[in-house]
Amino acid sequence: MNTQPGKIRWLIGVAMIGTALTLGLGGLSISAKETWQMGDYENGEHADRPRTAFEQDAVYIEECGACHLAYPPGLLPAESWRAMMAGLEDHFGENAELDQETASHISSYLDRQALQKGKPSPMSKMLRNLAGKPPLRITELPYFIHEHDEIPKRMVTENPDVGSLSQCDRCHKEAARGSFDEDRVFIPGFGRWDD
Amino acid sequence: MRLRIDMPDLMSSVFVLMMSVSLASATEVSDALLREYQQAAAKPFSANNGEILWRQDLNGRSCTSCHSDSVKAPGRHKRTGKVIEPMSPTENVLRLTDSKKIEKWFLRNCKWTFGRECTVQEKGDILLWLSQQ
Questions:
Q1: Is residue A49 part of a domain?
Q2: What pTM was computed for the model?
Q3: Potential cystine with A61: which of A70, A72, B44, B83 (Cβ 3.0-4.6 Å)?
């Protein structure tokens, strides 16, 4: 009489343990992917895998990434991000206003992850030659300008597949991960960049 | 007392659980929002007026500037060129499934397109039209 429910409970138990294991292992493999160290590429068998080391934020990616690449926050100093977050109603001519809760979540994420003097980051070079008030645009950082000054217009602004230097990910395929390795640049319609 | 588990009952509970965690459908969300808008609007909503508003051009700006001429096709952000998935809920099941998101984009995009916030009447007309696409 009691064998049937017992058997069912045993089956449910097995199913629950199975599910827990599957979810657990899935979780492990996800976290393993997200904790690669940032910087250069790994050697050997994972040479094609870029490392991602900055904290990713789902709200930031959803809200800012809706209109453009969710620029890695380590590309600009906190002062720039703060000024940007204070003027979202006129965000380079576009309305990008956010509700208070979302805005403060994103602000604190940007503050934590911003480009910072003395903080080791593969993007720390972005601070080079930066004096005075930092710009709002990544493309106006002196180091950025210096790094891109040899690229002819026909490859960028006159290239319909690129359009502007703000479109990092058109040529730096791993831009979202914060990887801007010069050896990996691929300009649509032109191919590898070799200076 | 022994716990007795009835298989059909268990299966129906699992089914109900699965249904409740699945995405709310576009119709449910937009219908609820339309009912809410209607309480503050003077006239019943008109899908036809919604389409007229959607296609209305004001100083070179229109909903179609970024969403393309067809709501069943992808669009492109006018400024950044980023691909925007189709607005039609039949083409894109994720559309109109989140009322907070609908409100956010109405606020931003009415300001961009018309230079002001949309009225409840306008939002209702547009939402009704979009929900039928």
A1: no
A2: 0.73
A3: A70
Residue B108: which of A5, A68, A96 has the nearest Cβ? Answer: A96
Domain count of the fold of chain A: 1
Sign of the Cα torsion B30, B115, A97, B94 reads positive
Task: Tell me what the pLDDT averaged over chain B comes to.
Answer: 88
Is position A2 within any domain? Answer: no
Q: Compute the distance between CA of residue B48 and CA of residue B50 in angstroms, rounded to an integer.
A: 5
Q: Domain limits at A103?
A: 58-192
Distance of CA A154 to the CA centre of its chain: 27
ipTM of this model?
0.73
CA distance B5 to B2: 9
Record: contact B112-A68, CB cut-off 8 A: no
Which of A11, A67, A101, A102 to probe the B interface (max B CBs under 10 A)?
Answer: A67
Radius of gyration of chain B (CA): 19
In a domain, A68, yes or no: yes
Question: Does residue A132 fall inside a structural domain?
Answer: yes
Cβ-defined contact of A67 to B80 (cutoff 8 Å): yes
Q: Which residue of A has its CA nearest to B75?
A: A67
How much of chain A, in percent, has pLDDT values that exceed 70? 72
B75 has pLDDT over 60: yes
